[in-house]
Amino acid sequence: MAITNRIAVGPQRGQKAFSLQTLPPAPAVEKAGDNVARTGGFSLHAGIAAKAHQREKLERLCRYIARPAVVTERVSLTRQGDISVALKTPYRDGTTHVVFQPLHFIARLAALVPRPRVNLTRFHGLFAPNNSYRAQITPAGRGRQGKGEPSRTEPQKRQAMTWAQRLKRVFRIDIETCEHCGGAVRVIALAHPCAPRI
Q1: Is 35 a domain residue?
Q2: How far apart are CA 19 and CA 97, in angstroms?
Q3: Contacts of 17 (CB under 8 A, 6+ apart)
Q4: Which among 36, 132, 133, 156 is placed 20 to 30 Å from 109, CA to CA?
């Protein structure tokens, strides 16, 4: 529903969301070499690449991928109490704003919340979980072992990051260091949601 700009809930389900077209439609011009594919309401842009030494370009790309779903500075209330979202880049038909009723706007936001215990990262090709070459190209040797291949050694198994290391790397949360004294913290108990109650 969202990619076709239609309302998903309520009595107006299936109808197009109200949009403001304050600019004239842009002429349809396809540039050669854009490396952009569009189908079924989706678009895939493959025209940007970052080399290993281009750290600033890579950071800009990562910030773009991790951007929030809604920029609060572009959201406002109309006099009728509806939610108006200003588009960063106008659509080709001249649309600059999309207007939602509060319930429809919340339905759009709720659709972005991932279901619990669902893996949000999908790997394809050589990095796919069942690819027979994955164990040969990942640093920790993770992946399905092919027939006749030796199983991972203990040093290879230890190469995989621990949960604490991942927290520190991704979110800069260091649970192995005391925030008050700076000393080392050790695990004294582990609470598992499936553990039997005592």
Answers
A1: yes
A2: 6
A3: 5, 6, 7, 98, 99, 100, 104
A4: 36
